Amino acid sequence: MKRPSKLIVVSSAFTLLIFLVALAYTTGLPKELKVGASPIASEEVVVQPQIDQHQIALELVNDDVRIRNRAIDSAKSIAPANTGVELRSALINLLSKENEIVKKSHRMGVTLDTLDDPDVITIIQRMVAEFNDPTAIGVLAEALGMGTVIRPLAGFGEQAVPAIVSVVSSSESHYSAVDDGLRTLRLIVEGTKRPPLSTNTLAQIRSVVRQRLDGRQPMFTTVWYAIDLATIVDDVGLREIVKNLAENRNAVLARGIDDPSIIEKTQKRATDRLAGIPAQPRP
């Protein structure tokens, strides 16, 4: 049998080499295995830009709304856990400022969008809420009324009650803030099982519920949310007030509710809560 010539062997080896090179470039093999690839050159180093939190904090108080909004966008890109003390304080102070603008719109009787962008305000509210910082409870309570901070405040539990009660009990609070406060207190009461709320905390809640159930209220919804709360704080006197509302049409009229359909809905709500049908949403 004849042995293959050296020329054939070399030719076959060269063909195989060409095949392997082509395979390496078409099959996604690791770069370090590809012919001519350098392991050092194949590693790309991505340098993340450093965010100047001090500069953002300064821009948040700038009178130019465009600069302020740009700073807010920059702050949004930073995870709450990575937000430094200075920037966190600046955002909390900014929310305090926006709270005053919201109150001003109520006093003037104008829509909020004539003084500032409501969407931007809710963004600031959410950013501060995401810090889950107990030192921000007061400013978050003052932000009640736009529906944004109800759940975050309820998450603080009992420690948030005094600040919320202060808002709900104030004659200067807009009805929307009062309503949000009552809803938040209900979530706290329903969400606190072990250990239960302290005697002092329950006393504060019962007192402010009685205030919002007695006499005329600025909006029928305030009576509704007070009914929801009155029936879950283990107070016989409050349940009697709710029972009177359920059974006595004149009692509902005395709260400033005179629309027949709203009177009917108010009495049904009182009846349902006395029967143990829980308010929505749940904790």
In N-to-C order, the SSE pattern is: HHHHHHHHHHHHHHH
Based on the structure, what is the oligomeric state of the protein chains?
Answer: single chain
- Biggest β-sheet: count, sense, barrel? none
Structural class: mainly alpha
Uncertain segments: 6-14, 16-48
Distance between the ends: 90 Å
> How much is the average pLDDT?
87
* Helix count, DSSP H or I runs of 4 or more residues: 15
Count of extended strands:
0
Large-scale geometry: elongated
Question: What portion of residues belong to β-strands?
Answer: under 5%
Helix content: 55-70%
Structural Rg: 32 Å
Key features of this structure:
mainly alpha, 283 residues
Structure description:
The protein is mainly alpha-helical and 283 residues long. The chain has helices at 6-26, 39-42, 53-59, 65-76, 85-108, 118-130, 137-141, 150-155, 161-169, 175-191, 199-213, 220-230, 236-247, 249-253, 260-274. Helix 9 packs antiparallel against helix 10 (175-191). The radius of gyration is 32 Å and the shape is elongated. The relative contact order is 0.06. Residues 6-14 and 16-48 have low confidence and may be disordered.
Secondary-structure map:
Blueprint: H1 6-26, H2 39-42, H3 53-59, H4 65-76, H5 85-108, H6 118-130, H7 137-141, H8 150-155, H9 161-169, H10 175-191, H11 199-213, H12 220-230, H13 236-247, H14 249-253, H15 260-274
Helix pairs in contact: 3-4, 3-5, 5-6, 9-10, 9-11, 10-12, 11-12, 12-15, 13-15
